[in-house]
Amino acid sequence: MDIQHNFIEQGQGEALILLHGNGEDCTYFEGQTGEFARFFHVYAIDTRGHGKTPRGEKPFTIRQFADDLLTFMDAHRIERAHLLGFSDGGNIAMIFALRYPERVNRLILNGANLNAKGVKRSIQIPIEIGYRTAKLFARKSEEAKRHAEMLGLMVNDPNVRPEELASLRAKTLVIAGTNDMIRKTHTRLIARSITDAQLVFIKGDHFIANKRPSEFNQAVLAFLRDD
């Protein structure tokens, strides 16, 4: 049985779907929703097992979340949408665009990564230690099991090869912070691997949408509204 996503909906026009990062919910985009809704029909959704969307029984993976997004779009009769994904949400958007290219207008990848090696080691090592520790206790504790699933997304996913990105046909913006937890060389690799992708760095860390909303929104809207 498919899950029912919790989501915020605002505005009119072309659909723009916002996908949050690991352990967050749709409120991450509180600095974007209203601004983008001036020009687009915005849907900010809670991913499976995040926010108010139930975990369900299906696998807890980036590829499952991409399939969940397809189900959401079908349920809401969204034929095509612009996708803006942050962090794990960017990875969901990337996988979705590879699997269902005919459903994507424009693609915005914010702080996305192809694999765990794209994350700075100072960030990734504690994640991997936490993941292994949580897995040890997962059989005895529901909380540890949930923690292991969340951290597992950052250890085991999304595992996309750079050459796979060559098949993306959606006009793409790759955007990240100048001091992002994703290595700058990795962000450049993603942009370089997508035909004619635009690349923008905004002064700040991984959470530029949240901490630098005016600069972030300006860059995104310039990209989306450029004919």
Write the layout of secondary structure elements.
Layout (H helix, E strand, L loop, with lengths): L6 E4 L4 E5 L13 H4 L4 E5 L16 H14 L5 E6 L1 H12 L4 E7 L10 H17 L4 H15 L14 E7 L6 H10 L4 E5 L5 H4 L1 H12 L3
Parallel strand pairs: 2-3, 2-4, 4-5, 5-6, 6-7
Antiparallel strand pairs: 1-3
List segments where confidence is low: pLDDT < 50 over at least 5 consecutive residues: none
According to DSSP, the number of beta strands is 7
Question: What does the overall shape look like?
Answer: globular
- The topology string of helices and strands comes to EEHEHEHEHHEHEHH
CATH H-level superfamily of the largest domain: Alpha/Beta hydrolase fold, catalytic domain
CATH architecture of the largest domain: 3-Layer(aba) Sandwich
Q: What's the alpha carbon Rg, rounded to whole Å? A: 17 Å
Q: How is the main sheet built? A: 7 strands, mixed
Structural class: alpha/beta
Q: Write down the domain tally.
A: 2
Mean pLDDT: 97
CATH class of the largest domain: Alpha Beta
User: Alpha-carbon distance between the termini?
Assistant: 40 Å
- Multimeric organization: single chain
The percent range for helix content is 25-40%
Spatial order of strands in the largest sheet: 1-3-2-4-5-6-7
Beta-strand level of the residues, as a percent range? 15-25%
**Count of DSSP-assigned helices:** 8
By CATH, the topology of the largest domain is Rossmann fold
